[in-house]
Design goal:
Blueprint: H1 2-50
């Protein structure tokens, strides 16, 4: 009985860790997208400032 409970607890902990890993990956991806957008906007502003 204890072995079954231990296995269930290990499975539960593994699923929580997988969830945290997925959230962290999504946050990193979103952060990269925001940084890329900010870089693009800065480049566009610099190009506009240089003018024709």
């Amino acid at each position: 009985m204890a072995a079954g409970s231990l296995a269930l607890a290990a499975c539960f902990v593994a699923s929580i860790r997988a969830g945290y890993a997925a959230v962290n990956a999504a946050e990193a991806q979103a952060g990269s997208a925001v940084a890329a957008q900010a870089t693009l906007q800065t480049a566009e502003k610099d190009a506009d400032a240089m003018g024709p």
